[in-house]
Amino acid sequence: MKKIILLITLMLTLIGCGKEEFEGKWISKNWKENPEWITITKNEKDEYLLKILRDSFYSRSEGASFSATKKNDILKVGIIYEGFGTIIIDVIIDKSNNELILETERYVKVNKKFYREMDSHVKKLKSEIIGSWIEKKEMKEDWWVVETEVPEVYKWEITSAPKKNMVNIKRIDIKNKNEKEEPIKVSGGIFSITPQGEIEITEGFFRSYNVEDIKKFQKIK
Prior knowledge:
alpha+beta, single chain, 41% strand, eight-stranded antiparallel barrel, 3 helices, elongated
């Protein structure tokens, strides 16, 4: 029995030693403010592909891809700048904390522990905006326009959606609720919350908001 356990341990150790340290997904160490993340892959010819994206884990774009070669534990990434040609940038891993360094930015490896931390953070952001809110936009006058804008008042109803990073939002325009000639306008939908606190807007809905914007409204329930 002891021999079997030792054999399994040795096999796992050998597998771990052969694992490519650069390969995988990395996200900015300051991920609560900076949504930039990187994926690094390697093919059978030991050629590397580095992809940089600047959006959230919940809404991913294609991003920009760059080829790279490895030399002395350093990835040499060729980035093409229009008018300047190709510039080689070094990507290294800080052995003291296993952080990936690209120029002045540091990235941490995405793993199960990170996902748990991110999910917990998004859950907290979501809990902070659940409820009923009143948004008031004060009257203002632009110097080049004679007319003065009418004060805007909206009621927000925010409830939890089935997915952990999503909320149901209904916004009611109540500024003209006593004027029969103008019907009450209602807009809404299901929206996701990014780890940076942004509420991702769908087409045809109101302007961009984030969690901190909503927390500045008057909470009524």
